[in-house]
Each structure stands twice: as structure tokens, then as C-alpha cells.
Amino acid sequence: MSRQFDDVLLGSIELFCLAAEHGGFTAAALVAGVTPTAVSRSISRLEVRLGLQLFVRTTRSVKLTEVGRTYYAQCRQALAQLVEAEREAMGQQAEAAGTLRISIPTTYGHHRVLPLLPAFRMKHPGVKVHVHLSNRNIDFVDEGYDMAIRVRAQPDSTLIARHLEDAPVVVVATRKYLKQAGNPKTLDDLATHECIQFELPSSGRRIAWLFTEDGKHRDILTDGALSSSDDVLAGVTLARHHGGLFQTYRFVVEQELATGALVEVLQPFGGRSRPFTLLYPSGRHVPLRMRVFIDFLLVQLAEQRKPKRGGLRA
Predict the structure, then answer these.
(1) How far apart are the two ends of the chain, measured CA to CA in Å?
(2) Chain centre distance of CA 58
(3) What residues contact 147, with CB distance under 8 A and at least 6 apart?
(4) pLDDT confidence of 156, banded at 50, 70, 90?
(5) All domains of the chain, ordered by start, with CATH?
(6) Tens digits of residue pLDDT in 84-105
């Protein structure tokens, strides 16, 4: 393998990343302990080498170009891997360290992962965790995430997928609503009920409700005057305040079902679930902070799914 990088180039890349992170050449120079002119020259050399403009320069500020943002995200990731590789080689990475950035759906974040993070931090105090709660797809490179948890993840050769669980779904309502509207006995009865809708934020498409009838899967597009997007928990709140029927994950409404605040309906047609998957980029070194988090998460989620007293399951 021929040599492609020298110390000058690597130094230019590092100064470029500092300028991108701190919003200017002067700020980068202060952090690096060099002059703003040295930063400017280094970045200019980098732009000449690439044949690209990384920053738009004005008399008042510098701003990353679109290609500059992509290049910065990739360089930042590469430099972080170099730092970690050096630590491991020198035996300094006996304890996991660094910042872990993870994107998680709102329901799974609030009810599965967030409650586990304090215990993870107690076990690995050197790891900082930044959580992004969202149901949209993310770009690992451009947005700088280490990993993501998604429901119904599509196959992707650029990502490693670790199955977390198949989460059962249930249809719930309050006793007050059922007293007013009646208790549905068949799937056809859904047409006469207020069915709270969740719409995908990216497309506005309604999410079908999942059932089993006569041993076969049946997906139904319900209808209703109340709807939400982006945050599935909004539907639970609406159902809790007598807004109608809503299908959600059992682990989200477990406590409400136990106390009677919500009631499960259409139980003979249940048994369906949706898969949750942990995703992270393939073809790259997996830092220790990611490895310990993955191991911790898999163990803790398995514990959550164990049968609890009274026969309830998470």
C-alpha cells in the first residue's frame, strides 16, 4: 500500500474540522494554538488538493458548503477512529470513553432505553450519551450518529442490524369511551368507532392496525377525526383522555392496563407485533463505547421482557 497522507495533510484535515466545529478560522486557531492565517492556509491547501470549496468566506464569517458539510462529517468520524485506535494500541482504553450519539423512536426511547441510561452511566462513567428522539430516518454520516434504533428496519448492506425485540401491539381505550361508544366485538366494528390515527411524518401516510383473524394476518386502515404525527405517544394521551381507540405497543400502556386507566379491546384478534432493530454502520471499527453499550442494551432488554409478577409482560 502506497502512502497517501503525510503529517501536513492530516494536520490540515484536523484544522478544517476545528474550523467547522467552532464556526470560524479564528476560533479554530485559538483551540489549536496557531494563527488564523495558518488555519486559512491549511484549509486552502486542502481545498486545492480536493479541487473543492469547503467554506464560503465573507468579510464577517465562514460557512461550510454542502460538500464541506459531508466532508466534515466523514473526517470527524475518521479522526475519532484514529484517536480511539491510538488509545487502544497504547493500552489506554481499558475503560470505555467518549460520546455516544444514538437516534431512537419516541416510544422506544421513553419506555425502553432512557430508563436504562443512568445505570449505564454508573457502569461506564467515561461514556457520555446523547439521545435524539425521532421517528424519522437519519443519515449516519451527515448527521454524525453512532447508531440508531428503528422499527421495521429495511435491509441495508451498509448497516449492521441487531434484532432487539418483537414488540406486541394492543388496542386500548378508556372505560368511559367504551361506555359511550360500545365495546367492539369484531374487526368490522372498527368502522363505527373513533380510531385515533398516527401518520408518518415523512409521507403523511396512516399506519395500519395489525390483527390476526382466522389464523391469518389482517392489516386494517382505520379512520378517525383525531390524528397525530411524529410522536406516537400523542395517540396514547388522546386515548387516555377518552378520545377513542388506539393501537400501540403493550410496553407503552402496561401500567395503564394494570391500573385500569386503559382497557384492552379486540383481544381475540391480537398476537401481532413489530420488530425493533439496532443499526450501526458496517465496514468500520466499532469503538469500545459502542460495544459496551450494545452488550448492556441487549442484556437489559432481555431482562425487561421476562415475565413479571401477575403474568404481565413488557
Answers:
(1) 52
(2) 36
(3) 100, 102, 103, 278, 279, 280, 290, 293, 294
(4) confident
(5) 7-89 (1.10.10.10), 98-159+276-304 (3.40.190.10), 166-274 (3.40.190.290)
(6) 776 666 555 567 888 899 999 9
